[in-house]
UniProtKB/TrEMBL annotation:
The keyword Disulfide bond does not apply. Keywords: Signal. It comes from the Eukaryota. It comes from Dioscorea zingiberensis. Gene3D superfamilies: 3.60.21.10. This is Calcineurin-like phosphoesterase domain-containing protein. Residues 1-20 form the signal peptide.
Amino acid sequence: MWKHFGCLLIITSFYGVVLCHGEEESVLRQPNDKALLRFSADSTFKITLFADLHYGEAAWLDWGPEQDANSSRVISAVLDNETPDFVIYLGDVITANNLPIPNASMYWDQAISPTRSREIPWATLFGNHDDAPFEWPPEWFSACGIPQVSCPPANFSISGEECSFKGTPRVELMKMEMKKNRLSYSMSGPKELWPSVSNYILRVSSSKDLTSPVVFLYFLDSGGGSFPEVISKAQVDWFHHQSKAINPDESVPEVIFWHIPSKAYVKIAPTSLSGIRMPCIGSINDEPVAPQEAEWGIMDILLKRSSVKAVFVGHNHGLDWCCPYNNLWLCFARHSGYGGYGTWPRGARIIEMTEHPFVLKSWIRMEDGSVHSEFTLSS
Ligand SMILES: *[C@@H]1O[C@H](CO)[C@@H](O)[C@H](O)[C@H]1NC(C)=O
Ligand SMILES: *[C@@H]1O[C@H](CO)[C@@H](O)[C@H](O)[C@H]1NC(C)=O
Ligand SMILES: *[C@@H]1O[C@H](CO)[C@@H](O)[C@H](O)[C@H]1NC(C)=O
């Protein structure tokens, strides 16, 4: 069965083709030829979610780089407090619409750097700002003319004509990340789902038995930027097909990650007047949910799978709650970056899972080290 599984995962990634030889070893490896993710010896697996970091804003002004340094400080503080097994960058890693450089991979790399330097493996997915086209600030065309910006920044050997300020496509950002980083578990999903790119599945295995999956992590690209904010029908069909193939009896728990909340979040959101009350858990509820533009049924499919425990999204910087939605939890992460709108204190949502029995817990770790909103989602 797990041989079969090894081949099925190939469909999720065009990088994995060579693995489908039916050899025992190939079965035990991630499609991207990484060591298999597994629960640690104490039977836990802890994930830190960094949402909406927005690196690269106003790079030509003093406060832009200062903001990014602040975001790196948040990431470092959270990682040193939590020492997670895995990190997920939950979209809007950069603000491409603010980047007056031809190649945004440099900022993408800055965001990843504190995780990489601690040798923690990670995965990324795309938000609506990551490949947005550059938006020329109107004031650049003032009476004084277009101001001098540092283009290109250091380390790029670029001739003048390559300095055209345009967004870097998702595929290119992902390619650069995967090429350079041994610890990256990110993947460009199947080509037939493009322009949405960050569609892939990771398996986390038991600490005791590598062939035994304890949880599947599904990553979906909820669009935005260079195309509409949607999870397409093609992605829904892909999820349906993949989940049925790798987890046909729904015996393995499944956790889902994407960037922009679905409309179901609107339905269950605490009203602004009532604040966040049980059964919802969280600390800020300061703006309306900004959902995807259109939906083609992903929520119906998730609701039908008893194995799906929770969905985690970012996007709304002023929301950090989790609320139940039938048999699963819909959760916001926590705005982690100094970039992007809002001055709510920065933090990160933590997910901790335990095997035998499977328990899923979550809490929010703030930049200042404090912890709040801890609860058990599934046990
Ligand atoms: C960076 O963080 C410091 C300390 O929290 C804060 O005072 C400052 O305003 C921040 N700067 C920016 C540009 O966000
Ligand atoms: C983007 O920058 C990276 C270095 O960070 C470089 O390796 C890559 O070739 C660049 N891509 C393009 C399209 O310029
Ligand atoms: C430029 O490259 C040097 C050496 O590789 C590195 O230390 C530095 O951080 C880089 N600067 C930028 C802006 O990427």
